[in-house]
Specification:
The structure is a homodimer.
Chain A (H helix, E strand, L loop, with lengths): L3 E6 L3 H11 L4 E8 L15 E3 L12 E4 L6 H10 L3 E4 L7 H15 L2 E3 L8 H12 L3 E7 L2 E2 L1 H8 L4 E10 L1 H8 L8 H4 E9 L5 H9 L9 E6 L2 H7 L5 E11 L4 E11 L2 H21 L4 E3 L14 H7 L2
Parallel strand pairs in A: 1-2, 1-4, 2-3, 4-5, 5-6, 6-14, 10-11
Antiparallel strand pairs in A: 7-12, 8-9, 9-10, 12-13
């Protein structure tokens, strides 16, 4: 059987994760890595793999079954998503929540015109966490759903700290508050504020001679990013940052509690992830959905989808018969 | 909008749970309860609800959108599943694992001939646990999946104890072994025997004058049911059994650990349920899938399905637009 040919668009952490995930899925192969840089300057981990400039993507039409878009949601995907959907099946991890309806509509239009399938907002949140919110609230109709993130590195918050004058480098961890998680698990359906649910831990390398008190104050009072949280700031050396904080762990919990029956019997549904590498795990989810996109397109379907629209069996290498026999 | 009309076939614990679940889903209504008993003798919880003898089910064709089959997997469903699939959309919780392929084939044939949709093996295991095994192994291709059940009442094991001479009544709890769960969560992918994973706790009411030592021995050495487990037996009074053991709690965990990338980064995916009432929760899952069956049939589809084949969005009362906006 011929393999599903995957194109990787953007070769950052997620792109490299997708490349690794392809190696672990025997029904797939890397068709090409697409980059904005000079292709000759990009060294990929797959021997003999093609590296192509993004301007020349259309030259690969017919050689790529699914493009996995590894660009950012802020500026890359809103443009690239619809453009590529017109020419290829695509998977992306678009996560600007407020703009999902608009993005979905734009991608849907392009994908239909191009007769392609595009699955948007794939990963773990949005993605697996969204699915678990959906399943849980469809089963326990009366109840409350809570999502906790962490402990894990937030790139957005780390970047925000790095932009403060006097900061040389920084890593920010989002940490769920144990008491809040326990309260939720108890089924009491508590009302929790932003501050109740998560704390923020910052590890900051200050520039020589910088005013640390000012930096700490600038972090803790930063609107939206930190001011609504209990935030702790630790100043460390560049060496310590490299040694202790160079991994990209993440994870979290989706918990729904609710009741059934006349007597209000309580139930707790919990989904949790504990990830050593956020980008590699995200990439593994993207690749599973790339398989689904390919299969749907082979069946003649087109248009945009989200994880909500994808029958789970489409994600697996196993046949429906195998799945029913082995894991149902 | 007209409501989805649900028929309940069999009015035991699950059937009563389905009746309660219908009350909590505003897009549904109870069409009728079908029973093998004298309908006049069956008192249902829904005022004015029809109770119809199973022999007269076909008289309700056209008045029921989905039949939820609440019979047992051993003898009821193998006959009833295909019979009803020929005439109605159906949902069942068939759980005789070894016979799923044969059962699926029989139901599929009947459902296709009748132009109906039948979703088999719905509940939490098989059901939500199966889905989580599928999602987790599709993402973490290299890894190991573990399922733990409990703490919860096993009807099959309780029944087995009740058949021992000298036993008046009994309840059996399946209990996951904490150390095994912890080992699995650590990502070490341990090889675990049946005995390592679960213990069995039995609460037994002996008949007046019965030999308790003999009963205990009969339980602990019972092939398949108990001999491969560490089993504890507690003799209690009928009053204690009623007071402390009349609920039907259950739950469990599906845990997959695996690795990604060149360096073998570790990940843990865990899904857990903690249920006050096993039959009411199972019924709530059945009803969510009844919605999906109805929608698929409205779209003109037919044949048998499992939870693996059902796009998650079909389970929700919310529209695809709402789902993308609110929980993606």
């Amino acid at each position: 059987m011929s393999k599903i040919r995957i194109g990787i668009v953007g070769y950052g952490n997620i792109g490299r994760g997708v490349e690794q995930a392809i190696k672990r899925n025997e029904d797939m192969e890397l068709a090409a890595v697409f980059t904005r840089r000079d292709p000759a300057s990009v060294k990929v981990a797959t021997e003999g793999a093609k590296v192509v400039h993004m301007d020349d993507m259309l030259s690969m039409k017919g050689d790529v079954d699914v493009m996995v878009l590894c660009g950012g949601s802020a500026t890359d995907l809103p443009v690239m998503g619809p453009e590529l959907a017109a020419n290829f099946n695509t998977i992306d991890s678009f996560d600007t929540h407020a703009k999902i309806p608009e993005y979905f509509a734009n991608v849907d239009k392009a994908a239909k015109e191009g007769n392609n399938i595009s699955i948007i907002s794939v990963g773990w949140d949005p993605g697996m966490f969204s699915l678990n919110r959906l399943y849980a609230e469809s089963i326990l109709v009366q109840g409350s759903t809570y999502t906790f993130w962490g402990k894990g590195v937030s790139q957005g918050h780390s970047d925000a700290i790095r932009r403060i004058p006097g900061v040389k480098n920084a890593i920010q961890y989002t940490v769920p508050v144990d008491e809040a998680v326990d309260q939720v698990r108890s089924g009491s359906e508590p009302k929790l504020t932003t501050r109740d649910k998560h704390t923020r831990e910052c590890y900051v390398v200050a520039q020589e001679g910088a005013n640390k008190a000012e930096i700490e104050n600038a972090i803790k009072t930063m609107p939206n990013y930190f001011d609504e949280y209990n935030t702790t700031v630790h100043f460390i050396s560049e060496e310590e940052l490299k040694r202790d904080h160079s991994k990209m762990p993440h994870g979290g919990f989706v918990i729904r509690t609710g009741e059934t029956g006349e007597e209000g019997n309580k139930h707790v549904i919990e989904y949790s992830l504990k990830l050593d590498s956020n980008p590699e795990f995200t990439a593994s989810v993207l690749i599973a959905y790339a398989r689904a996109a390919y299969r749907l397109n082979q069946k003649g379907e087109n248009g945009a989808r989200s994880v909500f629209d994808i029958a789970p069996a489409l994600l697996s290498m196993k046949t429906p018969e195998q799945l029913r026999k082995e894991i149902l």
